[in-house]
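User: Fold this, then the next.

Assistant: Folding the first:
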Amino acid sequence: MIESYRRKFVVHTMSLIGIVLLAVLAVITVYYCNKEYDDLKHTMHEVVQPLDRPFEKDDTEPSPKMKDAQPPPKPDEPNKTHEGIIAVFYIKSEDRFSVVSDINAEDKDLIISVAQKALLQGDSFGMLDDFDMIFYKTGNESEVKIALADRSSYYDTVRKMIIIMFVVFLISMLVFLFISNIIAKTAVKPLEQAIATERKIVTDISHDLKTPITVVLANNGILKENPNSTIAEQMKWIDSTDTASKNMLNMINEILTLASVDAIGKNTVIQHIDFSNMVMQLALQAESVAYDRGIELETDIDSDIFIRANKSYAERIVSGLIDNACKHEKRRGKIIVSLKEQKRKAVLKVRNTDSVISNSDLPHIFERFYKCDKSRTENNSAGLGLAIVKNMTEAMDGSISVKSSTEIGTEFTVLFPMRGDFL
């Protein structure tokens, strides 16, 4: 599916680029062809403009005036601009054409015929399709100056321009194809990651549901095999079924909570919260759990720290981090909960002094269904707690990070903007 999506992306992108590129190159080609056409007209004008009445008696020799009007180019500077252009002089009073340019005698009659055709044209510049030539004429009531050029030279220039544009088009398309493939791979990478994450989530959910469901089915099987037994005699199987069911319900609730946070995003209800008071109360509530596990819970909470947040989200974040710390701290260890104000930020820190997360696990600690315990039985957790905390934190424009080492243990840090930043 991903490969098909990538191919479609490249095809659609290259189609759009091809259309735009063809349009641009077509405009450039038309522009330069028109420019070449105008340049040819200007050149033909330059050829005939300096001509004076070239013939007095002999129509085969140009007059001294014509010779003086356009001196021959120097040997080391040939006049290539006028190459291939034939000049014809027409005297209306004598109805006589004179070919000024140096041509073969056998071509003279043809050139005069072409000039006669040009003389009949209404435009001063244009094509003579019958002779495959281009003409330009200028003059007055007594005389007309005519320039003639082979149309094939102009068409050769046009063909060269079209070939150049075609080569540019091919090279450009190859370059854009290479770039499009790179962009397509980059574009589908998040989709690949999303699909891989979805598959992993489905696998993890299936794995976590399989165990309690198996337990429930096994316990029910045992109860069915002993229909005459009393409830007291089968209580251990009933308790086992109850525990498995609660584990399934807890995981389903966490999945629904995470889905709710994803759906609501930053549209959650925000209100002013006395964050100092909230953190203190939740830490006091957790003291009994910590004491029962032989863990010392220490607090360092500054007063009068207010934030704008969703109350239920904020409570879940604080209690989730403290509960996570209690689950992973060793007996007779210490948990430190602190809340400070730094640079207009409320900084909440929850630190285990004796619990360390390995370097391989640390980058994945906030991923959904990720557990450091690869046996996936630790504390009957679904591995969604920290993912929920992270999503809730980011939904309230906060940020969360974690660092872990043997020197400091494991420390989670949550940053929230202070209330004044929202006013």
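Now the next one, as you asked:
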Amino acid sequence: MSSRGLLWLWRAALCAALTASGSPDREATRAQLAAEQAYHAAKARYQTNINNAAVDLTFASACFDRADLTSQDSVRASMAHEGIQVCRRWLQRAPNQAAAHYYLGMNLAQLARTKSLGALSIVKEMEKEWLATLALDAHCDYAGADRNLGLLYRDAPGFPLSIGSRLKAEQHLQRAVELNPEYPENHLNLIETDFKYKPSAVAGEHEKLRAILPAARKQFSGPAWQSSWEDWEPRLRKIQSRLAPAP
């Protein structure tokens, strides 16, 4: 199963839930339909293979994807709860499965999106699961645990409200790039953070991203990666525009 880039969820958790406005985008509607179909297929397999780690992984991921692409909090919460339940059952059988800890954190993050300020109570549990992922397999989902922890520490409120930390954010985002430099999302997150905290480092990091892009476009290609590139390309263009010399 291939992974797609994972959008961070924290800011959405602190705001009102996103709602659709106007006519739905055709590509977004197609992606939602695909996620729904994948969810139902994964659930059907899970119901007859409840002790299969590969099936658990596919279903937990499908729950996350469907939650991520819906505009309805009720659906998002339902999908998140299913994904959380799958991962917790999986961890009861196999407590050292990195992917189980990882997707437990991911589905908890989707649940946090439905809680507004109540998300603060879920943050520590998300952090715990991603730290467990790091201890077991730091490369899981192309350094996904470091990627998510970095963004969590970057965007969460600091002490005493929550766990936000500029230092930890920079450490984890840098480590994600070092662990899996082939993955564009890792570079994008670090560059966007450097614009805020270390502008002098941006140009060098951008060159590293440019260097891996040709191979990345071949490696991360096909329908499974379409939504990732639809996120990555605008972010890349924005970075390039900020680096362009003023006329």
